[in-house]
Amino acid sequence: KRRAPEAADTSAAKVQKVTDGSTTSKLGGFSIDINSLTSLAQRIITAHQSDDSKDTKFLDDCHDNGTIERQLWPYFVHLNNNGASDPNEEIAYALALLANRRGGGSGKGSGIDGGGDSQLMFVVDDNFFPSSSSITPMQRTAAFALLLKGLLSYQDMQTHSLGHISIQNEVLKFLIASYSSMELRCKSSDSNSSQRRGIIEGPLVDLVGVRLWDAIPKRKRFLEMMRDGMLKKRYGLYETKRGDKDANVGFLPGLVDQLFTIITKDDLDEGEQRAVKGYISKSLELLLDLLSYPQTRTHVASFISSHNLTVKLVLSKLYRDQSFVLFRQQVNMLLDSERMEGGMGSSTSNSSALMEKGVDRLIYQRAHTLQKLLHRHYVEEASDVVFAGVGRVTDATWLREKIGLWSENTLYDVCYRLRLVDDKDIGSSTAEIAEQLGCTRRDLLTSIIIYHQSSRQSDASVLSAAPIFPTEELLWDPHSVPPGNFSLASNVQSLSLPKLNARFLSAGDYLLRNFHLFRLECAYEIRGDIVDVVKRMRPALKQDGYTDPNDYYCGAQEDTAHQDDFGKTEFQGWARMGLQLKSNKEDKQGFRIIRVDPPRLGQRFPSNVVAELVLDLYHCATSLASEWDELREFDNLFLVAVDATKISASQTEDRKIPDEEDFSFPERFGVRAVRGVTVLEVRDEAGVVLSDPALAYEEGGKPQPKGKRRFLRVALDPAQYAADATGRGSPLGTDVYDTFNLVVRRQGKENNFKAVLETIRGLMRGGAHSMYRSIPSWLMPVLLGYGGDPSAASFLSPQMKSFASKTA
Asked: What is the pLDDT of residues 7-27, one digit of tens each?
């Protein structure tokens, strides 16, 4: 909470005093002293660059006093009211610095919670000066446009300064927060005057609007104008309005050029690498945001596609660098986002309405265009492609093989005729770009044509092939599943996570983002439960000379080396929610796969994978054993492979980071693999199915289980099993299922995530349960943020009651 103004004791509070009448004006009872504001802005910038605790306290006091709302923001409102068009760049940058601290994204000394809307609330906040309610939404919009102009001008002025990377990082953070707050509305606006757009949406959309087409190669721009008459009309109006002035393409082309320059640099010292990696992460995060908003995607997707940015990023050395995992994850997200069903780089205004069939039609049109071009100019050299079916032409593997038979000149000419490259227009030739990327010109041209011609999986097929249960790679990935206290991850600049916006590209985009985010949210909770169980079980190496003939992991000798290592692991503790896997015979393991069904038609993974695991309740108390006997069908369990020979550090050493938030936990406790399973049935030693609900209705009540061993028939995740079988999931392949020695259960109330994820997956599929048949047409615009009546989503609305009465 901000302190009262009279309780503050900082230089920021003294700025309200008028020192020079020639530079002072009034706004709502407040004095605007330009010289004092400039001095304050310089003081803020200097304090941000300093590591002194006094400077950090000064910045915190500026936040507590509401310096943005009381002094910096009224300056831009004052400029707009006076008709000025040249804002002070230092004041704009100082405002961005203080706003970034509210979002917790400025690094040093930033402990202030919030983000997104909270950083931009000063635009619509009416609680700091009395006459702020008299400022119309149009005045606020114009003032914010001046703020953006000053901020981007300051960034351009500091391009050649020593700390320009740090300055650009702060500008990127402010832009990311601004674009995520485009739906801000004035609270004090008249209820009768509806605001069709957010207060700051206009200036932000204009920065990445039709002006970007001036930065697209001419031949590509002419082709797109011929295809889309509405785009041609908009661009014509833009040219008429611009007149003879020089083209102002906004900040995005410069950002893309500098991003490419940075990722191709090799002579960076260790001090610059951290700042550069932060800049790269923030740049990619901003590009991902621009592609995810319907207001900004239209022209941004066409610009990125015309410059082949994603192809260059994939071919860069940084993408192959295993130490920069975040860059690889963000590039993969950018690759999927640019080619997603909401647009495929199309510039049409209704591209967000493209469904799976529309995307396929677009890909087939591109394949047909390629075949006609090859038939006209290179029918002999590319006869295999000319006379092939469309499925072959859109197959990346097959097309790469056939392109390898073409000459390099033919390959370039095909790309040139398809408007994919132009050495005379893009500034740098393809040979120079390939040299900077560290690849051959042929590899670059091949990647470009395959990227534009190959098909992609639909959102439904992507979800059907995505594993439901989290694995060890996802659970301890700091970029995907960050710690609950984000300050503990000081080395994490950004997160490779999808964002939930106020608007979505399509219903598939809405469900896909919710699927991934809910899966990651559940992974965070699952990680905490697994860490708690493993800590309590206390894995350790078996002592020499101690063997237990009844213990499978001591008595049995396995052939493979990894099973010998896991056989040396013992658990010296116990946990209520975890048990060691046992076997009913010494010559059989505690977990074994008993059936793998063939894939269904059109799928690439098994239809069902069934396994059996054995639990020994001999050492469990009666109350604890009864809890394990309560396992029912569709309950979820987690299998953990713990190898005590891989423990790298002491488990009892004092650490400042909790084990639940420590990403080195697998190395410290020897956790090698985690897989999830679903219970199908539970049997006792007499073969009675304990999970059968009919047992509760038998005479005499439910019978007591026989023996201390329980045999669980479980279903594995088929998609995860297919990934393990091909080596993509685990380096051990399917042998990873022979290494599990611990089973973990969770509370039933918090263990229903699988049903939610499968429901989302079912809505994405076609047929009777698809989202287009399950969700009524009048509710779809409300969910996607395209208008409609928000009250219609309430269960008390007449539309919802009528829909429920017809579908119940």
From this structure: 333 333 333 333 333 455 555
